[in-house]
Amino acid sequence: MSIEKDIKQTAFRSPFHRLVVNLMYTNNWVCDHQARLLKPHGITLQQYNVLRILRGQYPNPVKVSDITERMLDKMSNASRLVDKLVAKKLVDRTECPSDRRAVDVVITQKGLDLLKKLDTQQWEDRLKTLSEDEAVHLSQMLDKLRGSED
Amino acid sequence: MSIEKDIKQTAFRSPFHRLVVNLMYTNNWVCDHQARLLKPHGITLQQYNVLRILRGQYPNPVKVSDITERMLDKMSNASRLVDKLVAKKLVDRTECPSDRRAVDVVITQKGLDLLKKLDTQQWEDRLKTLSEDEAVHLSQMLDKLRGSED
DNA sequence: TTACATTTAATGTAAATACACAGATTTACA
DNA sequence: TGTAAATCTGTGTATTTACATTAAATGTAA
To answer: Which residues, including other chains, have CB under 8 Å from residue A99's CB and lie 6 or more apart?
Structure first.
């Protein structure tokens, strides 16, 4: 559905205004879908993203501060997110040997298994309204929107 | 900055995966900027969006249920959002005469003045890395991503 | 009219979030 | 060495959110 119809707004002040509204609307659309898939598995979207960061470095540990840096939504307390994942035994948390301030976090086998199961759900198929080339192009335009130079 | 550099992820499983991550990342980028501009004026992004919905219909009232429908992020209790706006005297809330279950909400002059002041801030200028045509195009691609047909 | 389903807004509650700050450790450097 | 600044994680607290439920008003149909 076009956003005009869905949010019943007929006029935007400018193409830039429509773009911003559309961006938020589309983001919510995507997050809703994702959260719905994750819910039966007992994890939130944020926890899922942390797990994927950890898988990306597996079997190396990742410090809480690194997780914070890489999280998409600016930092909603990686500390407490990791708490939740530890409680579910999806990650292990150990004191970093070389820096006792820091904490090493590693995804567990159980965590890897969960991600593997979620991978197969292929929820991104819902985006196949775009061709692969279009997905690349759209992503590049988002980079440009943010003023990304490289 | 490219998301690869910023979130230090080198590989995405597919262009679709990169697109989804980019969408969330860009949305957060935009929301951060907006929230930062709104904060000195004492309103949140959500409250700002409600005010704009109300201005769109001014001077006609809008029911709480209509606000819920039109909000971008699926419903985080329009009732309580309106509460906050009433407390700040940015909107008026009156019982709907024709249906005593419903509540009519109208933006006040103070609310209109605040929006006018915010309009002039032109924060959307930050998006001028894109041309007007590109903004239109990007918006259309987001529509297509969601499978919007019209 | 009565009975019952539906719509609408508000509320209760647990969880998540934002934001500031505290405590421990490391780093920099005089 | 000694001391101040910076770094890293955890916590306190108020607000916001998600989700279910309640309560009132309306619609519907016997």
So the answer is: none
Question: B34-40 long-range CB contacts below 8 Å, 24 or more apart?
Answer: B34/A20, B34/B123, B37/B118, B37/B121, B37/B123, B38/B118
Q: How far are the Cα atoms of A38, A49, A74, A139 from residue A32, in angstroms, in the given order? A: 10, 15, 19, 20
pLDDT digits (tens, 9 = 90+) for B84-102: 999 999 999 999 999 999 9
Q: Residue A148 is nearest to which of B2, B119, B148, comparing CB atoms?
A: B2
In whole angstroms, give the CA distance from residue A34 to residue A37: 5
Q: How far apart are CA A141 and CA A132, in angstroms?
A: 14
Residues in chain A: 150
**B138 alpha-carbon distance from chain centroid:** 18
Q: Looking at the complex, does the CB of residue A134 fall below 8 Å from at least one CB of chain B? A: yes
Residues B26, B27, B28, B29, CA torsion sign: positive
pTM of the shown model? 0.87
Q: Which two tokens stand for residue B25?
A: 């990342």
Residue pLDDT, tens place only, A60-71: 999 999 999 888
What residue segments make up the domains of chain B, in order of their start?
A: 1-41, 42-121
Chain B residues in contact with A30 by the CB 8 A cut-off are: 20, 23-24
pLDDT digits (tens, 9 = 90+) for A4-49: 666 666 678 888 888 998 999 899 888 888 888 888 898 999 999 9
For the domain spanning A42-121, the CATH number is 1.10.10.10
